[in-house]
Amino acid sequence: MIIVMQLGATDQQVNAVAQILKDHGVEPLILPGEDRVAIGIPQSLTPDQRENIESALARAEGISKISQTSRPYKLASLEFQRARTTVNVKGVSIGGDSFTVMAGPCSIESYEQLARTAEIVQKAGATVLRGGAFKPRTSPYSFQGLAEEGLKIMQRVGNETGLATITEVMSPDAVDMVASYVDILQIGARSMQNYPLLIKAGESQKPVFLKRGPSATIDEFLLAAEYLLSKGNRNIILCERGIVSIDRSYTRNTLDLASVPVLKNYSHLPVFVDPSHGTGVAKYVPPMAKAAVVAGADGLMIEVHPNPDEALSDGSQALLPKQFELLMQDLRQLAEICDRKMAAAVSR
Predict the structure, then answer these.
(1) Who contacts 154 (Cβ-Cβ below 8 Å, separation ≥6)?
(2) Residues 65-119: pLDDT tens digits?
(3) Mind listing the domains of the chain with CATH numbers?
(4) All residues at 6 or more sequence positions from 63 whose CB lies less than 8 Å from its CB, including other chains
(5) Residue 164: enclosing H or E segment and its boundaries?
(6) Residues in contact with 273: Cβ distance below 8 Å, sequence separation at least 6, in sequence order
């Protein structure tokens, strides 16, 4: 339920409506707008609750209309929050009219490797450095990451370059540790419906980059975001990274670019695209990255490695430095055509 106040409604009238909701056992969510205030009820109501609340609100002053939300997710909905969310991290503005590129290796392999990659992507215009310290792999015998040592390397390189940093967190008990080292917590596709992890990450109040699960519907994806938002964390970024393909002979996943305008139509949260995991093939990354800009994405996450042939994970989808540099040149032109502003490079 959303209660839209009249234009010019007073604080006293808004507070009176909020108190009515509290008196009926409901915690109101006050949503300031450009011209008027709305008050949301994120929780589900029983028929009796709804009837009693609507009866009480009929006697309240300053209400323009009462409407029902049409989607199972509430806080993530554009119905609930009309203003687009912008996430600000270490001087980087994500969302709004900005277009942001996160780039770096799949795995943090050493200080030298990450520092070199950070230099490459920063020079090309990326403003957020990505890199995995914990790597959930299909095979238990594959490289699993450097764990906390990798986080220390990420923190050091982030401090040296001034780049914002992002890495994946895989379990609730690791949230506090990972959050102490990086600027953005990434919840990977395999963890999208790890609800204890979502709750803990939401409680951390750290910006969270949520990837869509490989078989998740749009509703399931936004309900996962709802878990984060329900804990009071408003700094949430969505990421489309491909869904299960019916033919894996050519690409790792099917990159669902149609999800970008759909998500932008139903949610106020920034939407990113990961063409590296979405295709799994380096030569397909640039065209899909450019298509994502045109589709309306707020940014990209791209894997880059100084020497992909020697990468300890996902080398087949990582761009070479020169490939990334050329792609960034094209992205700047496309962003301008699409009335987006490329996030300014951070320098130290």
Answers:
(1) 108, 114, 129, 131, 133, 165, 167, 181, 182
(2) 998 877 889 899 998 888 899 999 999 999 999 999 999 999 999 999 999 999 9
(3) 2-67 (3.30.70.1140), 87-342 (3.20.20.70)
(4) 3, 4, 5, 6, 9, 17, 57
(5) strand 164-168
(6) 239, 240, 241, 255, 257, 260, 288, 289, 292, 295, 297, 299, 300, 301
